[in-house]
Specification:
mainly alpha, about 75% helix, single chain
Length: about 400
Amino acid sequence: MLGITLLILIGLLALAIPVAAGLGILGLSLSAIYSKLPLSLAMGEIAWGTSNNFLLVAIPFFVLLGEILLRSGMAERMYNALVLWVPWLPGGLMHSNIAACAMFAATSGSSVATAATIGTVALGEVEKRGYSERLFLGTIAAGGTLFSLTVLIICLVNPALGGKPTATSWKQRIAALPDLIPPLVIFLAVIGSIYAGWATATESAALGVIAAIGIAAANRRLTVRTLLAAFEGTMRTTAMIMAILLAAYFLNFVITSIGLTGQVNSFITSLGLSKVELLVAVVIFYFILGMFMETLSMMVATVPIIAPIMIKAGYDPIWFGIVIIILMELAMITPPVGINLYVVQGLRKKGKIDDVIVGTSPFIITMLLMLVILSIWPIIALWLPQMAAT
């Protein structure tokens, strides 16, 4: 059963069938082969039950938040302000890319939207200031806080990759500070309301949208055209995400009904792996799967199977959740299906995608090292939840 499932999945991936359709076809195929009952009759109930999940209302809200940040110009002004504050570091504007990606992702919650937004603003600086194009592209595709250290080390070893420093003054830096306030306000509205216990994730997303609309209106950047474009982009992205979710939930229902989940558990248990060996096997599994599968569908389709095995082996659920998030983000920059690679290459409109792939390779190594550090010192991921629980 497991072998047939893998063969069908590999075949669908090889045919480049859209992810939602591929997951649905896999579910229908497994149902037809292994189930005595027509499991396809449950599709309607699964679709209705999934769509009625209050938590999923956060998806269009967060997408809309990112669209408003992009189309109202807040992201561009945030980036231009950060440019003035980091030119003294080896790597210059590449630290601006990483910091801007971290701030935008913290408010919008979307890696793809972050790469598209910051890439649109930043790509014009590559040739102008003499940066290593590959490394510069890598900082956009893989933007995150720990990667500043990676850029710093690379540029200290080879200063030629760091480009020309940006001339600036304290007067310019202080004048640009107001452009950093809107993302901070939205971040506090979204994340602060959750940690303070004032709002759920869905409600906090709505607060973020309200804050973004209010700030855009105050800056006189909220027009009918901006709103219509943001609504259209939100509907397109939400429809794609929901199609993947519905297909993945149906697939999970099928593999549970036909006993595939139990078979996978039995297979892994029979291997007699130690706790560390199991973790290494899971990391390798997700690393390889992430090369060929989109992150949302990969997470929804595999976590219900893998998570119980890891928890049974003695791993903390919160710690494993952090590991999964890192592996998902790693999948977004690993070829050939790393979606952020294609987003950045699409914005670049020249050259080969090989440049983006090579540029992200140092950050792939950094993320793998991050997983090693989390494995050795799990308290890094657990201290804040433990402190919040006391």
